[in-house]
Specification:
Two copies of one chain form a homodimer. By secondary structure, the first copy, chain A, is an alpha/beta fold. In chain A, 44% of the residues lie in helices and 17% in strands. At the A-B interface, helix 7 and helix 8 of A face helix 7 and helix 8 of B.
């Protein structure tokens, strides 16, 4: 099993990415290919004694596609960037799976048009595991498709079902539709029509889910268009951060509070780690012909290691094949 | 100034509603009309010594429109419900403003088709003040219109602008568009087109706002379609509740934690009250010819009192007139 990792994608690239790849190699014995400036990569590896047991490959390029570049430039102007060459390793079968913490738009465009769609898939979509007090749940699409049609939401549900079965080992995943009310007739035209398709699909469809219930983990997958999904994803993050900051302010307010905070330290820390997306891994781009995992832009080494682990499970359990089968 | 209050709308009706109306009368000298079962209302008033100084009027009906009734039944089957008769008091000018904690759908339908739209308004919309660490911000539409067109979002912005100036006393409200990225070209077709209309509108448009930034209070009003707005509103609620519950679990975990929690009690309580929507009042239905305020379904007496206060300010400061002027 060889995973190609875009060493220059993400806010903390290249150091945290390379360190994460090293940790994944050490813990899971995965063979790693790193793409990016070879000189810099080799320097970081040498300085930190990251040992890859001779299995490491490096594809050398100085070009990087940034968050500010047009995502479609991955097809031409930046086709030889660290991300572009990582895609090439995947497509030309020198690697089994792809991980990048770089531009989401470029990963979606490259995945769709370079790696290409599974036959029958209208639009690939990004899914993401989110933390909840009683486990975790899968949100999809989290932003690859701003404008959706009902049949796209149906396909997202079928893909999420396959992913949860194969990667998360959930036998009969409960799949809900994000909506503004629980009744069948609620929502805009898109969601009313999607409901009708989903209730006849060969999945365990549990109906509409209101966003208020979502963080409680009431189902295994919440299906949504990429616009609402992206709003939801970032709002959970924003609300949690705002609240935790307010609590932190209380803890530091005076000596009495600081003392109380000290007594709670361990438990509050475990709460923070529950909300921490780096524990959970990356977002799979489902619907393309090979395993493509988008790690969070702010990924640290641990998050990259977990995204690589996810890529391995994804590949070993043949998620792509199952999606193709289920579509038929 | 007379406010008609639907005494039988909301989860805590009629007691908390009547108590809230009494508190508003006591503190603001507002004249109150209550709609609903006269016998029950009079019994509650007598038993609790709620004194309305002879100014109280009651419009008697035993019918109530519930959350489960079709919202359009307010026009016919439930036109003589407590909400229906409250609308009648407003329309026939026996009251200056309307407050109900009942079915949102019925309030939107009744407001739109009984009270009627301001000339030129395509669709009325619900706005709501939400708490943020540094103050509060206005979210609109929070759910009256699932399917929107770009011109509707433009009108929402113009109405929010008038409301914030007149009711909140904000001189030049900063108005943002909820979107999945800050760049002008981000979002689905609806939001891209809305952006173009908003940037040329006679308001202080500050561009796209990502949901992650929203809870920080980066602008005074966040404009959105009713689908995304409702998802956002309920997700903030759901995420906050989930987090606060996790923190509560930590506080009760063992004796050491209970002691620490006791030391923090006052500050944590003030945090909870910051997040508490009952402090903030109700959601105005903007775009209709008279002041209509929707209080939260779970309103207690304090929330109803605040919604009535809001109705008074709304009426005194002639928000309806300003919206009509600004539209031209």
């Amino acid at each position: 099993m060889r995973v190609v990792v875009d060493a220059f994608g993400g806010d903390n690239a290249p150091f945290e990415i390379i360190k994460g790849a090293y940790l994944a190699h050490k813990d899971f014995k995965t063979e790693i290919t790193l793409s990016g400036d070879k000189e810099v990569i080799e320097k970081i590896i040498a300085e930190n004694n990251f040992c890859f047991d001779d299995s490491l490959l490096i594809v050398d390029t100085k070009d990087v596609i940034s968050m500010h570049d047009d995502p479609t430039s991955i097809l031409k102007a930046h086709i030889n960037s660290s991300m572009g060459l990582a895609f090439k390793e995947l497509i030309e079968e020198r690697a089994d799976a792809f991980v990048s913490a770089g531009s989401t738009g470029a990963i979606v465009v490259g995945g769709t048009l370079l790696v290409k769609r599974i036959k029958g898939i209208k639009r690939p979509a990004l899914g993401s595991m989110l933390p909840s007090p009683d486990g975790k749940y899968f949100l999809m699409d989290m932003g690859a498709n701003s404008d959706c049609r009902p049949e796209m939401l149906l396909q997202f549900a079928i893909m999420a079902d396959a992913y949860l079965k194969q990667v998360e080992g959930i036998e009969n995943p409960k799949i809900g539709l994000l909506n503004i009310g629980t009744e069948e007739t609620k929502g805009d035209q898109l969601h009313i029509e999607a409901y009708n398709l989903l209730k006849n699909a060969p999945i365990n469809f549990v109906g509409n889910v209101e966003s208020r219930e979502m963080p409680k983990g009431v189902c295994d997958a919440v299906i949504t268009d990429g616009f609402s999904g992206n709003i939801a994803l970032k709002l959970i993050e924003g609300t949690s951060m705002t609240l935790l900051k307010l609590i932190k302010n209380i803890f530091y307010k005076n000596i009495k509070n600081k003392l109380a905070a000290l007594m709670l330290k361990k438990d509050v820390y475990s709460l923070k780690s529950l909300m921490d997306s780096s524990e959970i891994g990356g977002a799979p781009l489902l619907g393309v012909k090979k395993p493509v995992i988008k790690a969070h832009g702010s990924s640290d080494a641990k998050a990259i290691k977990n995204a690589i682990k996810q890529a391995i499970t994804f590949t070993e359990n043949k998620v792509v094949d199952l999606i193709a089968e289920n579509l038929e």
